[in-house]
Amino acid sequence: MNGVHDMGGMHGMGPITPETDEPVFHEPWEGRVFALNRATMALGKWNIDASRHSIERIPPADYLRTSYYEKWLAGLVTRLEESGLVTPAELESGRPAPGAAKATPPLTAERVAATVTERGWFERPVNAPPRFAIGQPVRAMKINPTGHTRLPRYARGRIGIIDRVHGAHVFPDDNAHFRGENPQHLYSVRFSARELWGDAAPPRDAVNIDLWEDYLEPV
Amino acid sequence: MDHDHQEVPSDPALRVMALESLLVEKGLVDPAALDALIDTFEHKVGPHNGARVVARAWVNAEFKQRLLADATAAVAELGYVSQGHEHLVVLENTPERHNLVVCTLCSCYPWPVLGLPPVWYKSAPYRSRAVIDPRGVLREFGLELDETIEIRVWDSTSEMRYLVLPERPAGTDHMSEQELASLVTRDAMIGTARVTLAGGPT
Predict the structure, then answer these.
(1) Between A148 and which of A53, A99, A128, B68 could a Cys-Cys bridge form, CB atoms 3.0 to 4.6 Å apart?
(2) What percent of chain B has pLDDT over 70?
(3) CA A164 to CA B61: how far, in whole Å?
(4) Each residue of B177-198: b (16+ CB within 10 Å) or e?
(5) Could you tell me if A33 and A111 lie in one domain?
(6) Active site residues per annotation of B
(7) Would you say residue A129 has pLDDT above 60?
(8) CB contact under 8 A, B157 and A22
(9) Cα separation, A56 vs A54, whole angstroms
């Protein structure tokens, strides 16, 4: 979707403000939101791409105004409701519906240490060989999907060079909408800064973007 | 301390408390698991992990070669960071090329080697400008790069995660691997800084 989350190349967002000795969490509730997101992932009702898409669907003004972990909270509430794990009435009252069965949490404290560095493994075996080879020019498709996509707007219609071949990976555009993983070859495509931003850009600079085969066409 | 200031929990704090209590009552999450997750990301996972990878690459040319060829496997052989469950790519800075990592679409970041990202990395100003004006961004971090140096920005749009291998500073020949690791900052491994003899908090 052409959302406000797709920020590459936008102007007017202000200065970057690094913080000295920044804590991991600025408030205890930020840590709780982070942990709730991790722990509920183990329920198996959604995936990383659906999680990202729930955050992208936050209304643009709210997306820009709220803090990072407020967005994580909003996305989590959306997923809990859409998956049916929690009803709107339960969210409203803060209490389980009368007579609701009590589940057993899949993620226990004992398992945290083993799972904590896992971000998952997204490479999948596929039969088809990669369509493109290193050094080959490709064009990022000029498409405007209304659902989830990882093809940033600033790259669409631009020509780049295949720089690395990463193997076949889960395709977010389908996985986010529970249409299956549709694994396909993933490439790092190098776009010159001038191709992306015009002749005023420094001649040697470039941006590498990870793009799936369905985003690319031969030139 | 300002004692007039009331310690009223903020709105998100109240909402999170209510949500957690609902999910615990429904048996969907275990509060002890939440505590363990927070403890891990506050105290165990962080840039010190990445710094050890960088220092090892500086002192061991064969490890560096393996790291650049397949970072997931090379980091896993160190045993203390990841169990190989992350698609990691290490990008080498050279006198001719400087690498910079961003995620324009969200906040993708190599957690096992750097921990959770700082607020600025996840912020609109960095995400919007790193790709269109990397030199301006680096200048804001106090890093002025000569025009002859190529800047290569890596937009983390997939599950591949990127870690910058900064250049080893001059005058460090006598240093041990551990001393070298203490020089390596988080920002140097994102690409918004160089490693200097001053080192500093990561």
Answers:
(1) A53
(2) 90
(3) 23
(4) eeebbebbbbbbbbbbbbbeee
(5) yes
(6) 103, 106-108
(7) yes
(8) no
(9) 6
In which domain, by residue range, is B50 found? 46-190
Reading the block at residue B16, the tokens are 């999170």
Residues B28 and B86 reside in one and the same domain? no
Bridging pattern class, strands B87-92 and A206-212: unpaired
ipTM exceeding the 0.90 mark: yes
To the nearest 10°, the Cα dihedral for B84, A187, A183, A177?
A: 100
Residue of A nearest to B19 (CA): A94
The whole-number pLDDT of residue B77 equals: 87
Which residues, including other chains, have CB under 8 Å from residue A90's CB and lie 6 or more apart?
A: A96, A97, A100, B22, B26
Name the residue type at position B151. I
Q: Identify the sign of the CA torsion B167, B137, B119, A45.
A: negative
Q: CA–CA separation, B78 vs B80, rounded Å?
A: 6
Query: Do residues A206 and A154 both lie within one domain?
Result: yes
**Residues of A whose CB is below 8 A from B158:** 122, 150, 166, 169, 172, 186, 210, 212
- In this structure, the dihedral spanned by the alpha carbons of residues B112, B120, A188 and A71, taken in order and rounded to 10 degrees, is 80
Dig out the tokens for B145 from the structure. 């790069």
One domain for residues B30 and B60: no
The closest CB to that of B135, out of A6, A166, A202, belongs to: A202
The pair of three-digit structure tokens given for residue B103, joined into one six-digit string: 């995620």
Residue A71's CB: how many other CB atoms inside 10 A? 21
pTM of whole model > 0.90?
yes
Rounded to the nearest 10 degrees, how much is the dihedral formed by the CA atoms of A201, A203, A208, A209?
A: 40
Cβ separation of B35 and A109 shorter than 8 Å? yes
Q: Does A59 lie at the interface with B, CB-CB under 8 angstroms?
A: no
